[in-house]
Amino acid sequence: MKIKIREGVTLNFIQSDKFKDIAVYIDFLHELNEKDATERSVLSMMMTDRCEKYDTKQKMSNVCDELYGATLSCRTIGCGGGHVVEFRSKIINPMYVEGSANLLRDQLCLIKEILFNPYYEQGHFSKEIFDEAVRLLKSKIMRRLDDAQTYSLLLAFQKAGEQQPLSISALGSLDILSKLTIEDVEKQYQSMLTNDPVEIMVCGQFDELQMGRMIESIFDFTQRSSKVNTHYCLNTAASDEITKVEKDIPQTNIAMIWKNGIDVVDEQYAALRVANGIFGQYSTSYLFQEVREKHSLCYSIFSNLISFDGALVVSTGIEHQNIDQTIQLIKEQFERCKKGEFSDELISVTKKMIINSLKASRDDMNSMMSYAYNNSLLNRELTIEENIERISNVSKEAILKAFNACELLATVVLTGKEKAHE
């Protein structure tokens, strides 16, 4: 059940008796750009460290222990043209604990302290906490750049999504991070609280009327704009060009990006999901069977949909001498799919795998909440059951149409420096 408290502020209740916890997520949505993403990523690493009331790490730990092991975390997420700062908290459902009538209120009050009363020193965010957050974010970004598969994908995103949100990392950039000040993050914090559309999500077994009243009495979010465009389709020109980049790595990695031309809210998107499953998502797919099993060119290969950006991506790690053969094989499998060279049995097996994945999401709290928030971002109310029905009804003709809507945009080959000159 969704309730609009005021413009730009929404409650989203997800009832389930499958869990012994109650989870509260608070999501702040903002337009994605590199500068703000960097500032918001640092902010996310500062917010749950401590607050005015619990001004040391030990006090924060103690209050969570007193709430029967409550958890608190914060992260940033990219979703097409949007950037989300997400606060997460989980606590045991009071029905399983004697004498815990105020447990949910205490959980919500703790979240409020973190959100509205951060830890200040002499009127500003703590330099110690800021410096630590900058170090942590720098380390996180560097790990991604040092991982060959991730780095090759980032390069392909930049190539295929030039001047578009796909090219921007939700973590931000090292260049902006190196120049960041506490004042920058403070301004971003105030903007987030005041201007960002906010959704408060609660999942578990609880009294919705009581929960709604508690949230409205505890969180005093003001009215704000609710318009942030998240989903779009890439408009980059098609290209067969291969971009080769050298890096000190032991294995060559290939990343390829197609634009699919199908908006994630379009009913045709179900056919694209089946098409992706046939092409490369599962062990039954053409990429896995041909590139890995038949030709033994890689240990793993997969395709995936980046739904909010209208992109399809392929990634694999190979030996340097197999670059040309692997790229050619990947293209051949895509052409086979475009011509409809796949059986009804493969369609049926792929549908079953997608449907099983959708059904399994109902047994995982994080997946349920992620699904519900995606619906909010896409301004729709598509239930898992309706999604399953759409997948079940996909025809071969619709799959062919989805394949033929795709165009290759970028191919990036990341290879070791010594190997590149052999």
Instruction: Give the number of domains.
Output: 2
Distance between the termini: 61 Å
Percent in strands:
15-25%
The CATH class of the largest domain is Alpha Beta
Any idea what the shape is?
Answer: globular
Major sheet summary line: 6 strands, mixed
Q: Percent of residues in helical segments?
A: 40-55%
Query: Which structural class best describes the helix and strand composition?
Result: alpha+beta
CATH topology of the largest domain: Cytochrome Bc1 Complex, Chain A, domain 1
Largest beta sheet: what is the strand line-up? 1-2-8-3-5-4
Low-confidence stretches: none
Protein name: Putative Zn-dependent peptidase
Pfam families: Peptidase_M16_C
GO molecular function: metal ion binding
InterPro entries: Metalloenz_LuxS/M16 (IPR011249), MPP/UQCRC_Complex (IPR050361), Peptidase_M16_C (IPR007863)
